[in-house]
């Protein structure tokens, strides 16, 4: 094979069976006498490997833990290996026996070591304090001592010279023959020296320079400095490594090695190139390698084997990349077989082989154990390292993250509150300690019980051969039944072309084998939070979030919502609103209309509900909705955003959260935030979604609003009318006010709010007030009854008396809810239990309403309770020691506020009996159903939002239980992306210390009139997005853009003048994007015939999208160089292009080419990959016709609803960022169609297009139109390869593509090397 034939031979994870458990590799080397590869990782483990077949993992030979800190350097000797770690230097035999070891103090660790390249018998080591030592490698004896430069990071011992490179960029040459005296020195870099290499008398050095503006962060120097070791004062010509404008490789040299007349230079990205030594490194060599490192990893070790036939690159993800220039590479020059046993240094017999069997003296330590005869066996020995992990007993337990999160350091000692979760000086392992140990320190996040032992990542499932299955086949809308309230919902049509089978067969987005939907209980043994109610966290592999298998956490047909985005605490409320059939139908009807408001919450809710209804159990996320929510000024003013709530939350909410969350929580109470956000959603949608009065039934219209042009309907789905009467006890003046209440705030079970309200007037004594409080009902029905008709006393201004008086305010319900009744639970401290502890007084916080201004804090005595405590209660138990009623009857007495008992709430003895029959039995059957709907009705529990406060696993989070619409007797749990069936007892029983209810939704069982109103709205405004958005596209931003273009013709701005070469003159821009033209940018709208194909479900298109980065990835970098990804970068859609794929004259012509206006700050435009420049997405500056995100999303939603077939490259990532779920049957992903099952590497679109058409794309910046057209042509080539051919015909094509790509190292001819 020629010099251009370097290919990736294999990849090897330095872990037994788990990629996430791999330690970063900091040292790698190859033996000079045998076929052994040495690796040293950050855990102090030295491992040896031998080569295997191409593509197969390396064979592990030995693995020993030889150091307590990271191994920095490994240098193979004859039959031993020299190892330098931070705390020790040692020589170890290939069999694992330690020849000698020298250690140092923890504060003065070894920083550099160099083995003599001439004799291999001596090594020089130095510490951070500048103490140098010359060691004899045979005996470990100290030969010489010397004082050298402090913080020397690299060393080189050759040609009777010692060259040191320090952290301040200095090169020093010392003479070993004269007590290591300094001969000469030179400053090569302003930052630390990274590595050194020597050829003859030339020294090659790479390092770093100080950052821009003299910052403390060093930046890799793009040059390799060259010196003559005999004269450092006159540097030679440096090796320039600066990349060209179109070069994708960023020069960051950090490793150097001389081999075979060439200088190998390896960069941080893993890319390694060669320079010829004959030219002093000025001429390019013919060899290079380019390993595909993880996005969040970088090169940590590099080595060229002594034979020059293989290159070893290790990264911080624990992956060893092996590249080879030969099909059967040899590591050593001799090419001998690996011998991992110790050599026989001194034999008593001069003959070879040495004596064997019984003739071997047992006490002679100079004879190797290999001389002992072994029986002839065919099976592997037990001493051979296998891939199976052995159980060695209980490990040391890990500290709870909740304790570490509240840790405060003082004088190098950490202090944290005792959570009192276990006994003092004892550690409880539990039954799952083995599972926690397998996950290391992340064992607290182990979800083995939920995933049934399967890997969380799709890439590992494919590597381990775990089976996958498609998503559930059901696609109907919940609660619709095909023609109910929604009247919409059809399954996607079957695939129509030859690529359907291949796309589904090669798809990497499959889910594991179907698991039976097991109904789980609510509590775990011992009062612990069960796994399915703990906070769900997404794990990230080297392939990003797309590699996470969400289907392991959902075995139902309902879709969950991901919680790794800001303000994701709203997921529970969004699921609650989605399962409210009438509200969902109204939002769907509204979003399909022509709402011009870009930040309309009703439209965003409707689009999200449509995605959840058609996702078929696939995981979704509400990024667009939550992004619109964060941009609403009302949400920020009400402190509904997580990033603002830390400083603006109400005092009651902060106090309750700090007390209720346990030790050191101090965060906002999500239970109260959920109640505020629920009220905000209902109020905003009630104002945004209004329908014409003429389209509603006559009996729906109110007498005082019959002449209004539009009516609000959301207020009839949720809530009830309320009458408020304020009376002055002195002048007897009364004022009445009518209002609508979306939710009712319950009082605490102790009646603390009532006691504080009575005592505020000063008319009664404390003893009498407590007596009145204890006489009240303490069960849930009594709380509901008191909350619907309550009497409060407040000090306010009386307009008649002209002074402040103690005014009595009476609030009562005037009509039973016709839809849903929402109950808000107050957030209580754990000390406010009904049972009390020892009858002692406790201080609690009462907040009966999140929006109430008169929330008070009162001292509550722990009296006796009239309810029984559950088995899960303890001394720190929940404040709600009761069971929620699943069904109750509500009767509202007609009349004014003078009625003594206006509201009656009673339990239902026979839940199977209808409310109409019960009312007829009580009143003799004389009451018509319409009057019954106003006077009262039967209400059934349909949803419950709860707050989970588990200090062991992190902050508070919300879950929601809803009734299954397909089986009203069953319940479903939604915990972000986890969806599981649960029992009803686990929902209604409020006995767990870690759970507090937040919102309970009761539905009126008689909603016929409300259903008729919603049906009338859906009949006049069905959910059907008009195809006019594709035939005559317009945007609300067109008028602003047109006005700006007219201003540019008169006086171009600075931005226009500075980008004149790219954008052209203002007049040409005006002619291109004429305001009266039907074209948007480069897109030609659909014709009527094409719109007909779209409505019939026969339309195809090729799609591509470009994105910008709104927020960079959040990760943690540790001292050893490893990185932990906490959140991936947040992308936003910048440009969406779609071209026709149905043939004809306009085949391949775009019909969508929209630039999305973005008002938020952009962290990275990624111009090289997106083609987006500064100002392209800003209204008033952009040279393009911009569109809002909602307008672009509705176009994409219309294509998905019309069963349009999408052709693209990497569609999974595109659809994820666009926040839309597309069935697999409608996707034709060329990245998956052209991926061989035997190869991990996906093929780029650029290479596929060049392979089939010998043309290049993406030569400069990416263009979504160009990429979509190229994808369409590549897909057409795929169809030609499979149409009319055997099923395995594509396999030969794939083999040919991978062969050509490997020979070219996946570099196109126009790419510079």
TrEMBL record:
Range of residues in the leader sequence: none
Family matches, as Gene3D superfamilies: Cysteine proteinases, Ribonuclease H-like superfamily/Ribonuclease H, YVTN repeat-like/Quinoprotein amine dehydrogenase
Domain USP: from-to ranges: 559-1005
Enzyme class, spelled out: hydrolase
Keyword Transit peptide belongs to the record: no
One matching Pfam family: PAN2_N
Gene from which this protein is expressed: PAN2_1
CC terms in the record's Gene Ontology section: P-body; PAN complex
Bias kind Polar residues: ranges: 458-477, 1065-1078
InterPro entries: PAN2-PAN3_catalytic_subunit, PAN2_N, PAN2_UCH_dom, Papain-like_cys_pep_sf, Ribonucl_H, RNaseH-like_sf, RNaseH_sf, USP
Domain of life: Eukaryota
Low complexity: bias regions: 858-873, 913-926
Keyword Iron-sulfur among UniProt keywords: no
Gene Ontology molecular function, alphabetical: nucleic acid binding; poly(A)-specific ribonuclease activity
Keyword annotations from UniProtKB, A to Z: Hydrolase, WD repeat
Region (Disordered): 458-503, 858-878, 909-933, 1058-1083
Assigned EC number: 3.1.13.4
Protein known as: Poly(A)-specific ribonuclease
GO BP term (any one): nuclear-transcribed mRNA poly(A) tail shortening
